[in-house]
Every structure is written in C-alpha cells, then in structure tokens.
Automatic annotation (TrEMBL):
PROSITE patterns (UniProt xref): FAD_G3PDH_1
Residues spanning the signal sequence: none
Alpha-glycerophosphate oxidase C-terminal domain: residues covered: 386-498
Name the record gives this protein: Glycerol-3-phosphate dehydrogenase
UniProt-listed SUPFAM superfamilies: FAD/NAD(P)-binding domain (SSF51905)
Gene3D superfamilies: 6.10.250.1890, Alpha-glycerophosphate oxidase, cap domain, D-Amino Acid Oxidase, subunit A, domain 2, FAD/NAD(P)-binding domain
GO biological process, one term: glycerol-3-phosphate catabolic process
C-alpha cells in the first residue's frame, strides 16, 4: 500500500471529500480517500436534506452562493433522479408577519430568475382558505406563496459519490483515521490506522486535501501539528421527526418571530421532518445531540402554525449535526456565511488544500473549484465532466421514477408497491443488481423488519461499505424508523458475523 504514490490523498468522507475524490479520479488523477468513521456520519447526514437555492440567504446578500445553488438544482436532479426530486414549498403569510409581502415577492422573483430554472415550476400565490395546504394550519393564514426546490437523500448522495469514485479506480478507505501527515522530499507521507482492525498503513501523495468538515481545524492541529488553526465556526442544527402531520405532498416554510425559519417536510411516507435550529457549538462534533431547549423551540415554532400542536411526546426520532461554517466573524450563528472557502497552502512541492464550509447543493461546484486549484498546484488532468454524469443508479430520465418503479414491478412481480418504490428511491437502476435472480419474496432471505431483507443488507455490505446496523438503518436507508430495538439488535448481530466486503 505504501509503495504507490497517489496524486491526491483526501481526508474526509462527507459530501465534499467524496465529491472531490469522484471528480478527480474521473479526470485521471490517482486518488485515495480516508474517512475515520462511516461515510456521511458527520455533517452530511445531518442536513435538512434539501437541494435548494437558499431563499433566506438572499437576506444576507449571498447572491453568488444563491445563484450557484439555484443553477445546481436541476443539474443534480438529472444526475440522481432516484435520490433527488422536486418539492414545492408553501410559505404562509399573514399581515404583521416578520417580513412584508413585497419583500417576500421580491425574494421569490429573484429566486425564480437568478439562475438555471427550466423544469421546476415557478412561484405562485395561494388562497389558503381554498387550497388544501391551508387545511392543517391555523385560520390566521389567508395567503401563502409557493415555490420550488428539491429534496435529497443526503447520506445516499455521499455514499454514491464514494461508490462511483471507487468504480473509477480510487482507493476508498472508510473507518481509517489519518494519524499524521508530513511533507518529506516533495511528497506527503501519511500514516493511517484502520479503526476496526488496528492495522497501520503508510501512504504517499503529491497533494493533500483536507475535507474533514467539522474536524478540519482538528486535522490541521493534530495531523499537521499547526496549533494556531481556527478557521471554522461550528453551528449546531437539530431536527425532529414526528408522525405525519399532514397529507399534502408539499412542504412548509415557516417564519419565526426571532427571524429564523424552520421547515416542515413530508418524510419517508409516514412522518414529518421539522427543523432546523441554528446555534453555536463548542464541544466535540461527535458528541452532538439535540438539547431540550432545541426540542422545545422546534415544537413551539411548528405549533405556531399547525392547528394540532407538536408536542415532545410526538417525536419518534431526532438527529443533530454540526455545520462547519467558515468563520467570517458574523455575530449570529444564522448570519454566518454558508458559502465555501478553499485555501491552498504550500507553493511548489506537496501542496495542501483546506476545504471550509459548503453545503449539499453546491458540493459538485465546490469539487470543480477544488479541481481548478489542484490543477494549478500539481498539473491539470482532464476536463470538468460531472455536470452531465449520473451517480450510480441514476441513469434514467429525470422524470422517469414512476416508469422505473413499473419496470421493477414487472420484472419482480412478487414485490409490494411500497417495497418497489423504496428500492427505486434508494438504488434506482441498481435495484435489479440487488434483487438479482430472485423469483419470489423468499429468495430475498431473512426479513429483519419493515421490508428490509437479507438481500438488501448483503448488497449494502458488499457495495456500500455498511458494517453496522446503524449504517444500514440510519444512513444507507431510514429503516430505523420502522424497526424495533430488538429487530435492530438482531440485525447488528447478523452483520457482526459477516465479512466486510466492499471495495
């Protein structure tokens, strides 16, 4: 392993690290990537799961970021129509609200016209006394604005970037911690430890990319020994999931009296996702948990709008993550820039690229900008290619989800409708690889709960580096919402006996 000299060694298996690795290997660079835990186990699986322009960022004059994000929505949708799809958002309005109607109209006009919208429908105005969207809400909302954005299965987007990078020849190493990285004779010498087996390895690379997300400063301090590093502002965002609050397929955008906003989004068929919070965070990112204060805040904020209050006892699941925002000195967490910053260090031999900030929607453009800096540092290879590409399983028409479900049901007639829909949402065209030659439901092996069968678990271990029940239940899928603790434990025991096979 230590013999090969890679062009690029990437630290971090979140969306930015995996996106950069995929783009780079597709251009012809030799690439290795190390992630100390599971893919998307940090910030990248803790988002509100939107592919969006960031309507509220217009208030902070982040026009470049918003325009780039708006232009990316349809590009990403075409790349991965199985895990990304359009979503309409309803923004209820009442007189005396936080923002005047003219300001919202102006913001939505800019949103519609700043960039790239071809397939997504434009903004409209709703009469909430007649529109079904008004039904679950309090009567004080007579009017609403409706606009388009997109939804993404965030953790799946990360692992599909990793899978495609590996398919193109990258060395992908989850559960591999970078212990040290030092420059020597014009190369980076990187020491890693496999956190499962304890095995130590040495790697060499011409260039290092630090895309460790919330740990980016920690990597600079510990692996590189630079004690003064302080570039990121950690901001905690927490979400709650409750039993379904409304039947409408649209999501809601709620404005709060403190000027913050939350979303209420249809989630996994039977649930509603509510979030997010925004508060500074100073502890270790791995320990992030929703606080009682945040729980109360989200319940109260949603209850201001819904007729039927949201109570803490309604919550079936919560998740929290730390966003590593570039520290621009903003006074409030919600005002800190969401834009990304790429900093190249080291002229000549063994350059280092540190990646700060970023969000799901802009990861592909961030990767392209990173490759511009990489090309300038170690020589250009290949041209930008990802805009017209497909993530694994996404090679079907952008509006072809229903046809893909029908195709799967015709070939595997034993599949229940919901089961087929979930498989296409997760795996797209690769659902047929997962199901193989199965002729009946029994051919899928043991049922762990919900519609999670042994065949799917085996696929996730072999193809997507899943090693624990948590990887399967909360990142590769969201079946954790449907399995009991006992069922999850039996899955953990089953997986513990399986060899780790992905590569």
């Amino acid at each position: 392993m230590g013999r090969e000299i890679h062009d690029i060694f990437v630290i971090g298996g979140g969306i930015n690290g995996c996106g950069i690795a995929r783009d780079a290997v597709g251009r012809g660079y030799s690439v290795a990537l190390a992630e100390m835990n599971d893919f998307a186990s940090g910030t990248s699986s803790g988002a509100t799961k939107l592919i969006h322009g960031g309507l509220r960022y217009l208030e902070h004059y982040e026009f470049r970021l918003v325009r780039e994000s708006l232009m990316e929505r349809e590009i990403l949708w075409a790349m991965a129509p199985h895990i990304i799809w359009p979503l309409r958002f309803v923004l209820p309005y009442h007189k005396g609200g936080i923002r005047p109607a003219w300001l919202i109209r102006l913001g939505l006009f800019l949103y519609d016209h700043l960039g790239g919208r071809k397939l997504l429908p434009p903004t409209s105005v709703l009469d909430m006394r007649r529109d079904p969207a008004g039904k679950p809400l309090k009567a004080l909302f007579a009017k609403a604005f409706e606009y388009s954005d997109g939804w993404v299965d965030d953790a799946r987007m990360v692992v599909l970037n990793a899978r495609d990078a590996a398919d193109k020849g990258a060395t992908i190493m989850p559960r591999t911690k970078v212990v040290s990285a030092r420059r020597e004779k014009g190369l980076w010498h990187i020491e890693t430890t496999d956190t499962v087996t304890g095995r130590n390895d040495s790697h060499q690379a011409r260039m290092l990319v630090n895309a460790a997300g919330p740990w980016v400063d920690h990597v600079i301090r510990s692996a590189f020994g630079q004690n003064e590093a302080h570039h990121v502002r950690l901001v905690q965002g927490s979400h709650i999931v409750v039993k379904k609050k409304f039947d409408d397929v649209r999501a809601y955008f709620f404005q709060n009296p403190d000027n913050r906003i939350i979303f209420a989004i249809p989630y996994e068929g039977d649930f509603t996702l509510i979030g997010t919070t925004d508060r500074d965070y100073t502890a270790d990112p791995k320990d992030v948990r929703i606080s009682e204060e945040e729980t109360v805040y989200l319940c109260n904020a949603a209850s201001e709008y819904f007729k039927e209050p949201v109570k803490p006892e309604d919550i079936v699941w919560t998740y929290s993550a730390v966003r590593p925002l570039y520290d621009d000195g903003a006074s409030k967490a919600q005002e800190a820039t969401r834009d990304y910053v790429l900093k190249l260090e080291g002229e000549g031999a063994a350059p280092l690229l540190n990646v700060f900030g970023g969000k799901l929607t802009t990861y592909r453009r961030l990767s392209e900008h990173a490759l511009e800096k990489i090309g300038a540092a170690i020589g250009v290879k290949g041209a930008p290619w990802t805009a017209k590409s497909h993530l694994p399983g996404g090679d079907f028409p952008v509006r072809g989800y229903e046809a893909q479900v029908d195709k799967l049901k015709r070939r595997y007639q034993f599949l229940a409708d919901q089961h087929a829909r979930r498989l296409v949402r997760r795996y797209g065209t690769r659902a047929e690889v997962l199901l193989g030659d199965a002729r009946g439901i029994d051919d899928l092996g043991r049922l762990f709960g919900g519609d999670l069968y042994e065949a799917e678990v085996t696929y996730l271990v072999k193809q997507e580096w899943a090693r624990h029940a948590e990887d399967v239940l909360w990142r590769r899928t969201k079946d954790g919402l449907r399995l009991s603790k006992e069922q999850a434990q039996s899955l953990e025991e089953y997986m513990a006996a399986m060899p780790a096979m992905a590569g």
